[in-house]
Design goal:
The protein has helices spanning 4-13, 34-53, 58-70, 75-79, 120-123, 160-169, 192-217, 227-236, 256-284, 295-303, 342-352; strands at residues 18-24, 84-90, 93-99, 106-110, 128-132, 139-143, 148-150, 175-177, 183-185, 221-225, 247-248, 291-292, 307-313, 319-323, 328-332, 340-341, 356-360, 372-375. The chain has 377 residues and is α+β, with helices and mostly antiparallel strands. Strand 8 (175-177) and strand 9 (183-185) form a beta hairpin. The longest helix has 29 residues, at 256-284.
Length: 377
């Protein structure tokens, strides 16, 4: 997954010749075979820009693209895809991200990276996990807003029945042997108390495994299960980022995707809490000089470190450039040699100077504007 730290690192790694490549990819099926071909074509476009438009020598061009081209002969890489792929290349670095976003195919070569297509990952698509608790089958899911991936729980029984058989085979239950050598277990025909205790013991084993995994990931955790089972788990739980609300339902009939839909309803306010607060702050500052939805004002403010929170529309670009000597923003209807995406640059400047950036659908933007910002001063 992509974090705010990942994007900030990309901003800092950019050099004079920095290639950004975005392409839609496939998770499985015959269509996967198309993905390396399309990536090869985009590398070819980048090579042309480096050589014909930016004057890079062919030998240095080949050296810069050597590692990305090695991916073309790595079928294992392409067989484990996602909805979209982003690649970032400089003479000294090469990074790829496979993410659950539907990218538009594009390549850009500048002295900075194109980061705005990745911004929804840090606005709406943080990762979280769901512990699906059932006496019949426990599931452990790693999720984003749009994806769900089952994670195997190693060496952990996935049902109370399996747990009980395991305990009996290990002779952990109190027992004695008859004179004929036959093993007799106390409590056969388990009463309600014994059954509840078995559920508690089972959930303790499950909780230990899930908590060990969650501490390595440090993601929020949601519990899914009926009231009694969820209450027992929360009582024995040791993971500090477990959400108070849980999916109160019998999970057995539900698919992983349906459970994720219910999990998102719980987690979205957690992920978007700061964004909602900043949207309210923007509205409260209406009429003051502490906010603006004027693109020129916002871009200029971002260059001077004034932007505390920036809202940008997903998929929208605006070409132009900032002349620092004249303190003027120049706009253009199309991409020309010395111009760049002003929205992308405002996001770069804001993130690199400690501000927050939110990528939203156009109809979710404050005042449905092209761009919006809250200023520090």
């Amino acid at each position: 997954m992509v974090t705010k730290g990942d994007i900030t690192a990309l901003i800092n790694e950019a050099q004079e010749h920095s290639i950004s490549i975005y392409l839609p990819t496939h998770i499985s099926g015959q269509e996967v075979q198309q993905d390396p071909i399309r990536f090869k074509n985009l590398l070819g476009k980048a090579e042309h820009i480096l050589y014909a438009k930016r004057g890079m020598e062919q030998a240095k061009n080949d050296e810069m693209l050597e590692e990305p081209r090695d991916l073309l002969n790595n079928p294992e890489f392409w067989q484990h895809g996602n909805k979209g792929m982003a690649a970032f290349i400089t003479p000294d670095s090469f990074k790829t991200y496979r993410v659950p976003l539907n990218f538009k195919e594009q390549v850009m070569v500048k002295d900075h990276f194109l980061i705005t297509p990745l911004l929804p990952m840090i606005t709406l698509n943080g990762t979280y996990c769901i512990a699906v608790l059932s006496q019949k089958k426990v599931r452990f899911l790693r999720c984003t807003h749009e994806t769900v991936l089952p994670i195997e729980l190693e060496d952990v029984p996935t049902s109370v029945e399996e747990f009980t058989r395991f305990k009996e085979s290990e002779k952990h239950l109190q027992h004695h042997s008859s004179g004929e050598g036959r093993t007799v277990y106390h409590g056969q025909g388990i009463d309600e108390y014994r059954y509840d205790q078995e559920l508690v013991n089972f959930l303790k084993v499950v909780e230990n495994e899930i908590t060990n995994k969650m501490r390595r990931r440090n993601d929020p955790l949601i519990i899914a299960g009926i009231k009694n089972t969820a209450a027992i788990y929360k009582n024995i739980n040791h993971y500090h980022r477990t959400m108070d609300d849980h999916i109160a339902i019998n999970p057995d009939p539900l698919s992983n995707e349906k459970l994720n839909e219910k999990g998102w309803e719980i987690i979205k306010n957690h992920f978007l809490k700061q964004m909602y607060a900043d949207k309210k702050r923007f509205a409260d500052l209406t009429g003051s000089d502490k906010q603006s939805d004027n693109l020129s004002q916002v871009v200029e403010a971002s260059y001077y470190g004034k932007v505390d929170a920036l809202f940008v529309p997903i998929g929208q670009r605006s070409w132009g450039r900032f002349d620092a000597e004249e303190d003027t923003i120049y706009h253009s209807a199309e991409h020309k040699n010395g111009e760049y995406d002003l929205i992308n640059m405002a996001a770069i400047k804001t993130l690199s100077q400690g501000g927050n950036v939110y990528a939203l659908d156009k109809n979710q933007m404050p005042q449905k504007s092209t761009v919006a910002a809250i200023f520090r001063y």
